[in-house]
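Possible race condition, two jobs.
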Amino acid sequence: MPDAAGTIERADLILDELARLGLSLARDMAQRAEAAKDDDQAARLAMAFHHVSRSVRQSLALQAKLAHDAQRHLREARDDAQRQDKTRRELHAARVRSGVRRIIGAEAAEREHIALLSRLELALLSDSTDADFLEGTVERHVARLCRMLGVRVPDAAAQDTAAPAADPPPWPLPGHVGPRPNPGPSPARRSSA
């Protein structure tokens, strides 16, 4: 199946050639109509000129529409990518915010909560626009922000900064057909039953 960009490029080249040929033909018809000796021939040539010039205008209009549509599609794709990126960043920031708030609630003195939460929001506004914000795990951001805020980092959050968690095995397993198996009782239980 041909790609859309190639199809549009070919259509643009064809329309360009049609417009050039039509314009050349229209010029020829106009000259012949002006030079015609008899009114009937001049009228036929004028009508032919009208049809050819209309075809040229339509070719140019279609070319302009294709260019406009291509620009619109590029703009929409860019806007969609930006919306998706913004949504991912907002979701990631919300998860980080939730984790840090939980730790602030558990570890910080109550009188410090408002000041710490305000500083957290400012830090998240800045961090969430960084190019690598989405690359770091939530736990890693939580631990870093807690350290920056001067809040004790619980061991579970600090451990994740050392090494990222292992990915779960892929499912379905290669070569497996059917639903995920139920582990059921262990072999030892089955033999005693």
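Job #2 (started ~2 s after job #1):
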Amino acid sequence: MIQMRTQTKRILIIDPDTEVAEELFSLFSIKDYDVERCQGITEATQRIKNVKFDCIIMDVRLPEIKGYEAVPILKTIDPTLEIIITTAENNKELESRVREQDIFYYYIKSFDRKELELAVHNVFQKASKTRKVKNEKSGEDFSN
């Protein structure tokens, strides 16, 4: 059973590199996001089945599967997930495969972390606007 979403901003970091995962965990935790981390798609799918996440930050190189191949699996569990794919090394073929997927953003790790922070911020701005539109259509007011 999926836990119901409150106004908590939940992020799941999927990265087999524990050092990177810990760095991202710290970066977003101090900004008042509710952050969890796991190392692979198997663990991630179990978490997503049990907890409602708003944003997934997922490395392209996972132990079991390529991150871009995992996108449809995750979207089958929760079609509303916003997914940010990350990579340490980019090339045209990889970028093409990643961008074919239903992702929110493609982040190259050598870029400034501010870019990733902005992408995450934009995920939650989009979610807030979507909730507002749904509330207006239903005639209900769930504003903060």
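Residues 77 and 96 are 24 Å apart (CA to CA).
Logs attached separately.
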